[in-house]
Amino acid sequence: MRNEPMVSWLKKFQGHEHLDSRLRGEGRIGPLGSYELSFDRLAVTPFPEYLKALGTEPDSVIEVSYVKPARRLSARERANPYLNKQAQVVETYEQAIVTKNILTQLLNTASAQVETWAFHFTEVQKNDLERVRRDRQHTKTLPTDEMMMRVELERGGETAYSFFTGDEPMPLYDFDCRACDRFDTLRALSLLLDEVAAIQPENAFEKPYLRSHADVDQGDDQNRGSLIAKRRKRRMEAFTATFVQGDDAARGAAARDAALVFLTEFCDVWAPKLIKGDDRSVIGKEQFRNIPGMKEVRADDVGVDAPVVLEALWEYKDEAAYEVVGGGELVLPRLLGERLREIRAEVAGEAYKTLLEYVAPEIRKARLEYTDYVEEDDDNMGTYERLKWQTQNEGESEAYNHAAIIAEMGGG
Question: pTM for the complete prediction?
C-alpha cells in the first residue's frame, strides 16, 4: 500500500502503529531489520473480530496537508536573493477512505501469507522428521550424490521455497518463516514439559532421553603413578557423590524431576529470546564468520531464532545434565532435543491444519460479507500459482527450469 494517508489510517485503526517499520520511507517498506518481531507486541484482538470491525467501519474522508516541493532553480536564479528565498507552500486535499478497498488489499495479503505459512509448515514437518530419523540411526550414512546436489542447489538459491514462490516472495517472507519456526518451537517446548511432567517413575526409563545408570568414564590408571591414581579416584568419588542411589522407582522419580528442572531452567533462558526473535536479515546473520568450533557471541538480551535453541541442546552430545544436582546424570539433553524436534514436527502439522480449517475459511467469510468478491468469478488459484501462470502465459517464461538446472550441473 503506497498511499501514505491510507497507510497512516490503517496503522491507527485499533492502534497498530507499533507494528510498522521504524525506518520506513514514504511509498516503500523499511529495512527488514526495522520491523518488530516480538510475539508479545501483537494486539489481543482476535483476527476475525478485527476483520469484522474493519469490514463494518463506515467510509470517511480525511484532510491531508503536505508541503509542496519547491521549484528547482537554475544557477542564475539561485544567485538572485529574491528568487532564492522561496516560501514553503502548504497544500491541503481530501482523501477518501474506502474501507472495502482497504480490506480487499488486506485479505489479498493475508491469503498470500496463509499459502506461505502452509507451505513452510509442510516443509518443517518433513525436514524435522527426516533429521530425527538420521540422528537416530546407529550407523550414520555417508552423503549421497543427491544430497550433495541438493546442497549445491540451495547454495545457489534454488530451494523449495524459491520454486514455490517463483523467486518472487513477499518482502518479509524470510521473517515470516522464521516466526513460524519460533512459534512451533515455543509450543513444542510447552508440550515437552507436559510430557516429562506426566512420566511415572516405574516406566521413566522407557523414554530415550532418560537413562537408568550414569555411564562415567573412569579412565585408565594402570600406567599412571599411584599418586595420580589416588587423586583421580578422589575426584571421581566427589563427582559421583551426588548421583542418585536406590531402586528403579527411586531413580526414575529422580530422573523425571531432574529433567523437569533442566527443561524449566532451559525455557527460562531461551523462551524470552524466542519470543523476541532475531531482527537481523539473512544477509546480516551471514556477515558473521565464526572460527570452526567457535560460537557467535551476542548480548544476553537479544532475541534468537529456533535453530539456535535446538543447537543448544545438541551441543551436549553424549554428556548428561550434570549441572542438575540429584538426578541430572540420568538426563540426556541431546536426546531431549531430538524429542523436541519430533514434537515440533507434530506441531507444524497441527498448525497447517489450523490454517486450512480455521484461518482460510475466516478470510473467505470476510471476503463474501464485506467486499465485492464474487465466488463464481474466482479462478481457484493461489497467489503464487497465479503469478506463475501469468509468467508463463503473459510474460517471458524462464529459460531454465529445475530439471534443466540439474542437467546442466551434470546430474541429469
Answer: 0.78
